[in-house]
Amino acid sequence: MKTLKFKNTEVKLSFDTYRNNGTLAVLMNTVPDDDLYAVITVNLGSLLQTDSLAFVDENNLPGIGAWLKKNKIASPLGYKERSGFCQYELYAFHHHA
Q1: Angle at 12 between CA 34 and CA 49, to 5 degrees
Q2: Of the residues 7, 43, 59, 71, which has the maximum number of CB atoms within 10 A of its CB?
Q3: Is the pTM of this model over 0.90?
């Protein structure tokens, strides 16, 4: 994946899976040192999560949803799930395209 800028930091995304259910996990790493900057997705254990659908953590990464959409990485699906006091929106990731 190409290098992008998120809040003045050079980053690259990597796509992995959550161990307990094999669903999509999206990580953001800094460039060039490849340190973990953030985990973009959250694992809610939902049946809606797949290898291309994941809940995005806008709570810990304000603006990440708009950034994903602007960079054509993922599209919001208009569905949210609650976990604790937070809501997470479901996104379709285009990494397989």
Answers
A1: 110
A2: 43
A3: yes
Query: Dihedrals φ, ψ of 17, to 5°?
Result: -130, 150
- Convert the pLDDT of each residue in 10-59 to its tens digit: 999 999 999 999 999 999 999 999 999 999 999 999 999 999 999 999 99
User: What one-character-per-residue DSSP string does 11-50 give?
Assistant: EEEEEEE-TTT--EEEEEEETTT--EEEE-EE----TT--
Half-sphere exposure (Cβ direction) of 48: Cα atoms closer than 13 Å: 16
Taking only the tens place, the pLDDT of each residue in 80-97 is 999 999 999 999 999 753
How many Å apart are CA 38 and CA 11, to the nearest integer?
Answer: 10
Write down the residue that tokens 């929106």 correspond to. 89
